[in-house]
Write a structure and sequence with these properties.
It is a single chain. Helix content is 47%, strand content 29%. It is of the alpha+beta class. It has one domain. The chain has a four-stranded antiparallel sheet with strand order 1-2-3-4, with helices on one face. Strand 1 (22-24) and strand 2 form a beta hairpin. The chain is globular and about 55 Å long. This is Lipoprotein.
């Protein structure tokens, strides 16, 4: 009986530690870390925003400037993506090393939105601890 209880507790602990895990086009949230390419950062130090190329194409210059003022480097990255391909979806990942832009096909919009939402929720939970 002791072994079974240990296994169940490990399973619950693993599930709690990894409830925000997600993957999008090579970027990965795994436990308390975010990785992309060959770099890894603490999740608490990161944030993300997902946009489709069609949404970015509709952005006006005023919105781009306002985004840069409100979001700093992340807003500037999104502003720079304003003329990108409408058949793509983008995740702007803000890291301690600066913004990273992750590009995927528009059909993966749900995965991009999920990735950004989970990253932001994991970062908020990590900062609250």
């Amino acid at each position: 009986m002791g072994w079974w209880k240990d296994q169940m507790e490990r399973s619950r602990t693993f599930a709690a530690d990894h409830k925000f895990d997600a993957v999008f086009q090579g970027a990965r949230i795994n436990g308390g870390e975010v990785s992309y390419g060959f770099k890894t950062w603490p999740v608490a130090d990161c944030s993300a925003q997902a946009q489709t190329g069609a949404e970015l194409h509709k952005m006006s210059l005023g919105r781009v400037a306002g985004g840069a003022v409100l979001l700093g480097p992340l807003g500037a990255v999104l502003g720079g993506m304003a003329k990108k391909d409408k058949t793509k979806v983008y995740v702007a990942l803000q890291t301690p090393d600066g913004p990273q832009v992750i590009e995927g096909p528009a059909k993966d919009q749900a995965a991009a939105m999920t990735f950004a939402a989970r990253l932001n929720a994991a970062a908020e939970a990590a900062r609250a601890q």
